[in-house]
């Protein structure tokens, strides 16, 4: 029980950093392009993780190398959809729409893992769904290309969470977490040059945001998630991750002048009690 609480805390801290992601990405997009941001972000994450975690990574089994390639490919697709999506919508909207994966995960897990949700999970899912609806159905919400991409991102992220849970059970989660960063960097590096001209931004706000993205929102966040998923069910992970838009809304308010309406605060509260209930009961 104590061990589970420890991993719940890991996921909670990681989710705070994930909530920062949208605001920091929005800032970086003022000074650079989508694939460059993904490249810089995951290069920093890969190098930092490799330096501090090398003893926990090596030796790498062949299966871990191949599985990290699969997870890296999925994560690359997630971040293409997310980064481009954030460019064409608000950071707050993006986080709310991507958080819809919390609704997808238990049912995808039921399909792929035969992990049938308990009856109370359906009740909590309904509460969480109402919370997400209240958060997203703001009078200023417009359905643009960015919103569509964020919904695609939510679907891709659902597959990523399910696949990660299946893979980490019999593999080194740290090795998987770090190596997938390298794959995402490589994929974005190879894709960007036919599409974008290479320019190194000189703005200090870009690099401050990028360092935060690379080290805390990526290196720590995704490794913590990968390790936690070895000890928690995908449903619990999904519900904790549903706090992400709450934190994103807070950061968006202070740094981008985005704000939550009274209706959205009610939605955030419903999400919060849903997350706490599921985390404690599991």
From TrEMBL:
The chain crosses the membrane at residues 7-24, 36-53, 65-88, 94-113, 120-137, 143-162, 174-193, 205-224, 236-256, 262-280. Keywords: Cell membrane, Membrane, Transmembrane, Transmembrane helix. This is EamA domain-containing protein. The keyword Transmembrane applies. It comes from Fusobacterium nucleatum subsp. nucleatum. It is found in: Cell membrane. Signal peptide: none annotated. InterPro entries: Diverse_Substrate_Transporter (IPR051258), EamA_dom (IPR000620), EmrE-like (IPR037185). The keyword Membrane applies. It is a multi-pass membrane protein. SUPFAM superfamilies: Multidrug resistance efflux transporter EmrE. Its main location: membrane. One of its GO terms (cellular component) is plasma membrane.
């Amino acid at each position: 029980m104590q061990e589970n609480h420890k991993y719940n805390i890991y996921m909670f801290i990681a989710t705070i950093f994930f909530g920062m992601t949208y605001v920091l990405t929005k800032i970086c997009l003022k000074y650079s392009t989508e694939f460059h941001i993904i490249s810089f972000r995951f290069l920093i994450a890969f190098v930092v993780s490799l330096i501090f975690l090398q003893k926990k990574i090596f030796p790498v089994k062949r299966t871990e190398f191949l599985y990290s390639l699969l997870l890296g490919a999925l994560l690359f697709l997630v971040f293409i959809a997310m980064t481009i999506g954030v460019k064409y919508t608000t950071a707050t909207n993006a986080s709310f729409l991507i958080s819809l994966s919390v609704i997808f995960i238990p049912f995808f897990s039921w399909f792929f893992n035969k992990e049938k949700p308990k009856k109370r999970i359906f009740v909590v899912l309904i509460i969480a769904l109402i919370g997400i609806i209240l958060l997203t159905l703001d009078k200023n919400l417009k359905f643009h290309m960015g919103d569509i991409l964020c919904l695609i991102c939510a679907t891709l992220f659902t597959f990523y969470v399910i696949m990660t849970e299946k893979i980490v059970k019999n593999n080194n989660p740290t090795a998987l977490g770090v190596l997938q960063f390298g794959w995402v960097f490589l994929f974005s590096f190879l894709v960007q040059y036919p599409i974008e001209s290479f320019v190194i931004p000189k703005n200090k706000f870009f690099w401050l945001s990028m360092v935060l993205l690379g080290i805390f929102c990526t290196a720590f966040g995704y490794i913590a998630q990968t390790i936690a998923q070895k000890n928690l069910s995908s449903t619990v992970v999904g519900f904790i991750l549903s706090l992400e838009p709450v934190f994103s809304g807070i950061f968006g308010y202070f740094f981008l002048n985005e704000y939550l309406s009274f209706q959205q605060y009610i939605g955030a509260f419903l999400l919060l009690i849903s997350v706490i209930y599921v985390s404690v009961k599991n």
